[in-house]
Amino acid sequence: MTEPALRLLVSLLQARPARRADLPALGLDDGPLDELIRAGFVTQTGDRLSYDEPAAVLARQAHATAGLIAVLPDLTREWQNHPRTTVGVELVHGHEEQWRAWARHAALTPPRAPINLYPSLDILRDVIAPSLADVVGPYPEGMRHARAVLPAAAVVTDDDRAVIDVLIRTGLRVRLARRVESWLYSDPEVLCALPLTWGEHPPPSIMIVHDPAIRALTAAYCETVWQAAAQYRTPKPEFHDVLRLLALGMSDRAIATAQCTSQRTVERRIAEAMAHYDVGTRFELGMAWSAEHVDEG
């Protein structure tokens, strides 16, 4: 959607004019209105205008895009069968071979802004995480823009979070979604990869596609999933809030009162923090914790 249309949508949702003829009086250019109507954000009946909830519109668009992506394997095969046209598609079978294929393509054309959708942690845990740092190490710039989306229900235990920590240490930004429909990989300016069977995870076979139109469609879908997801936040240890209050000058007793716990519990958490930071005194603990959280204030 164009920027003028987006600006007009914001103004329309603020003013809610009932008729198209009312737009000039509000200082609004109705030129981009037809684009909003085609996208489903606005409905025009005669001269009357009505408005739909943006989230509902985007959900319908995402559903339609998902449906189209689901039939991309069939569409691509039909495209390849046409005697005068070809689409560069590489079929890769087996999870380990798929990971090796990523490394092979990255060596030829370094990743620029990859995003991966994972319906579960299976492949990440078993195949990708053990060698991720070594494989992506040569591409620090591309991995700085790398992203991953997983379902929130897949990240529950400490072992699950350890897998996510591996992703984050290599530079990926991670978000959690309510649901991830299918595995998908998109690097809009380089290539995309789709499962041969939509929704199958882990996909036993994938196709790697360089066609610009398919890359753009896949990127648009991945971006919709990313925007609807929430940022993953590393759980903080129990001693974090104790140290935060300690840094404010509060005594152990005052911290215990503020947290509705015992002073002995506060002292235990301070001891755990000292072990975590490998320091021997509270002064050293304060220095170590302050250095790590210098940007939190």
Fill in the CATH topology of the largest domain: Endonuclease, Chain A
Can you give the mean pLDDT? 87
CATH class categorisation of the largest domain: Alpha Beta
Could you state the CATH homologous superfamily of the largest domain?
Endonuclease Chain A
The side-by-side strand order for the widest beta sheet comes to 3-9-8-7-4-5-6-10
For the secondary structure, the number of strands is: 10
Q: Mind telling me which CATH architecture of the largest domain this is?
A: 2-Layer Sandwich
Q: Number of helix segments?
A: 14
Q: Main β-sheet: number of strands, strand sense, barrel status?
A: 8 strands, mixed
The secondary-structure element order is HHEEHHEHEHHHEHEEEEHEHHHH
Tell me, what's the shape?
Answer: flat
Low-confidence stretches: none
Q: Using only CA atoms, what is the Rg?
A: 25 Å
Structural class: alpha+beta
Our count of domains comes out at 3
Tell me the strand percentage band. Answer: 5-15%
Give the % helix: 40-55%
Quote the distance from N terminus to C terminus.
38 Å
GO molecular function, one term: DNA binding
Protein name: HTH luxR-type domain-containing protein
GO biological process, one term: regulation of DNA-templated transcription
